[in-house]
Amino acid sequence: MAVERWIECRGDLWKDGARSLQLRVRDRFRVHRRRNFQNLRLSTTDYFSSTVRRWLDRFRDFRHRSLPSSSSTFYRKSVGKDIDAEADSVLTRMLQAVAVPIIGNVCHVFMHGLNRIQIYGAENLHQALLHRPENKALITVSNHVAAMDDPLIIASLLPPSMLLNAHSLRWTLCASDRCFRNPVTSAFFKYVKVLPVSRGDGIYQKGMDLAISKLNRGGWVHIFPEGSRSRDGGKTMGSSKRGIGRLVLDADNVPIVVPFVHTGMQEIMPVGSKFPKVGKTVTVLIGDPVNFNDLLNNEENQNVSRGNLYDAVSARIGDRLQKLKLQLDRLAVEQALQLQEYPVPVAERAARYLHQVDWESLGMENHVGVEDTSLTKQYPHVEPDATQTYEQESNSRDRYFSVGFARWWNSFKDKGLYGLDRIRGICS
């Protein structure tokens, strides 16, 4: 009996020992497998992360090599002279040669004949247009008051003879969602030298490249630095956008920048009006060209970022326009007081404008005189040479024609045929 009990006890001990050994071996094996799995997972994650990091570094290096500039956002983008072959086609130039002079002269007659326009500093624009060096580009900047600032204001600043040459006239920019909505409007604005730009696409979009290509060929580009019309009828001006800075700095040669401001277009073309009105007064003040020599020297001698240069050019142009706007407001007040004291009828103003038409170039004999000095000062013509000619003429023939034309107009209006009231009703 004792031997059997001893054997059973030893068997239980051996069984417990084997069981504990089995458990210890299993636990040790599980730990080893878990550690190996964790090491494998960590090594796989490190591999993918290092691969992604390596590709990001390669992309960053490629971007830095592609944009050779001190700034990773703004850079100098070179533009060729012939990036738009369709715009340079023979058909396009022929249609522009017809459409631009017609619209330009109609706007010129409308502004000078049916409205009253005062121009100060016209010699600054004429000097830049007629006497700038060959292949020297021109940029004109102005405030944006009404939807028809261009072409009405631009046409009023130029003599009719210059409006006949479509090649020398301005290019301008217009939002694609406003002027290029459908094929008809797109074709029309294309043939009157308007370039499309898309809102929100930045300063490196195709429309800006097209404008720079025109500047590289020595052309004339007009732009509104504010980017949109005034929200309060021209009482205040918005800040100049960065796009004007790129036009100035990214052209092959720094263009001449002539600023001017105007007031009165808010009365000719109020917000919501479909047709321009007549019998209004518009005043234009043209300033001296803007100088950027100090900014260009900073670009050559110092490590100035491209974005800061764009902002500096835009700020300088905006500051010049603000100063001109203050001067223009004072001139407008003085003219309003003078107009109240000495009102000029529309008929007499139209008669004076007829003197400025070159009838002989149109195949008609000129039977009228030319304006006297006082009228020329009050209604300055856009050609300085023509002004000197006006001062040399006598006053009697002009007085005679003005009075005769005014009497004929009044008698014609009294008969009810195409009276002034009917003209205002059609145009308003």
TrEMBL record:
Pfam families: Acyltransferase. InterPro entries: Plipid/glycerol_acylTrfase, Tafazzin. It is found in: Mitochondrion inner membrane; Mitochondrion outer membrane. GO terms for molecular function: acyltransferase activity. The keyword Nucleotidyltransferase does not apply. GO terms for biological process: lipid metabolic process. GO terms for cellular component: mitochondrial inner membrane; mitochondrial outer membrane. Keywords: Acyltransferase, Lipid metabolism, Membrane, Mitochondrion, Mitochondrion inner membrane, Mitochondrion outer membrane, Transferase. The keyword Mitochondrion applies. It catalyses: 1'-[1,2-diacyl-sn-glycero-3-phospho],3'-[1-acyl-sn-glycero-3-phospho]-glycerol + a 1,2-diacyl-sn-glycero-3-phosphocholine = a cardiolipin + a 1-acyl-sn-glycero-3-phosphocholine. It is a peripheral membrane protein. Residues 138-265 form the Phospholipid/glycerol acyltransferase domain. Belongs to the taffazin family. This is Tafazzin family protein. It comes from Abeliophyllum distichum.
